[in-house]
Structures are given as C-alpha cells and as structure tokens.
Design brief:
Layout (H helix, E strand, L loop, with lengths): L1 H12 L6 H6 L5 H4 L14 E7 L8 E5 L4 H4 L1 H4 L9 E9 L5 E7 L3 E9 L10 E9 L9 E9 L15 E3 L5
Parallel strand pairs: 5-7
Antiparallel strand pairs: 1-6, 1-8, 2-3, 3-6, 4-5
C-alpha cells in the first residue's frame, strides 16, 4: 500500500525536480517558448494576455479592440477556451492585429486603463519576405474592469539583434500561443 501511495505522490507532484512553474513555461504552446529566441528582457507579454492566435480575416483595416463574450472565446482561441474557466467572472477583450510579413510579429507588452502597448518585433536587418497578410488576435482578461474606452493602441518597434532573416523563430510554428499561467 505504501508503494502505491508513494507512486501516486510522485505522479501528483511531478517527475523530476523541475518546479511546476518551469514546466508550464517550457510547454511548447507557451508564450515563453515563442519568445525564447528573442534577445530582450523587456519584451514579454502583459500578465492579462491569455492567448495569441491566428484568426480568420475580418473587415478591420487596422488594429482594433472589442469586448468578447465568454462563450465566444472558443471561436477565436479554441485551445485556450477550456483553460479560462477560473476567469469566467472577468471581462474579455479581443485585439485584432494584421501581420504584413512572416519576418515580424507583435507582443502585447503593457495594458493600462486607456492604452495598450504592442512591440512590433523584426530582425535587425531588413528582410525580403512574402507579403501575405494574416490576422492574429490577442485574448485579454480584465478582472478588475479597469479598461476604459476608448483604448489607444501604441506600437513600439523592436529590432532583435540576434534574429536573422533566415533564422528559425518559433512564432509561425503554430496557430495559437497560450499564457504559461494557464498551462
């Protein structure tokens, strides 16, 4: 009996000595894995961003933020939807962002009452790329109901010194990235 209790404890605590927090940060779908090759400590997702996903194109010509009903989350963020039940009483927003190049992406780094800051990440050197436009969206939670309309979207450019045009950046390896706090 003691053998089974010990085995159960090992399974519940986890195998190895790596803390649970480290396991979630090393999950292949986590933001931390998406950003692992970016050479900056200042570029990280705001704690209120729960997911970043490629979505079907909308009519919006530029970045736009809109309220998102809880039951609509699955339409845009199917892998994240089942992980947000702890936030059911929060307000949710979706921020649409058009991608013009496969050699760049955005990180929502700061959310304030009336302003959102995005970092536009690009390689240091200019790259030739296909200009196929894609639309991505951020899932934002607002549990304190602090976000006020209208919300200004500020974009700051960040050229990564380490990222070369032909280097593999994991951003485009999947269609949905998830906050490590949910994993």
């Amino acid at each position: 009996m003691l053998k089974y209790i010990t085995l159960l404890a090992i399974v519940m605590v986890g195998c190895g000595s790596e803390p649970v927090d480290d396991l979630s940060k090393n999950n292949p779908k986590a933001f931390s894995m998406m950003l692992k090759d970016i050479n900056s400590k200042e570029v990280s997702f705001d704690k209120n961003v729960l997911a970043y996903a490629k979505i079907e194109a909308t009519d919006a010509n530029e970045s736009s933020i809109k309220p998102l009903e809880f039951n609509e989350i699955k339409n845009y963020f199917p892998q994240t939807a089942s992980l947000v039940f702890n936030y059911k009483k929060c307000d949710f927003y979706i921020l649409h962002q058009k991608q013009q190049s496969k050699n760049s992406f955005y990180v929502l780094t700061k959310i304030q009452e009336s302003q959102i800051t995005l970092h536009h990440i690009t390689p240091y050197k200019a790259c030739t790329s296909d200009t196929k436009e894609e639309e991505w969206a951020f899932l934002i939670k607002d549990c304190d109901q602090k976000m006020k309309s209208p919300i200004q979207i500020k974009v700051e450019n960040y050229e990564d010194q380490k990222w070369e045009c032909d280097a593999h950046i994991p951003f485009y390896t999947q269609k949905e990235w998830i906050a490590p706090s949910l994993l």
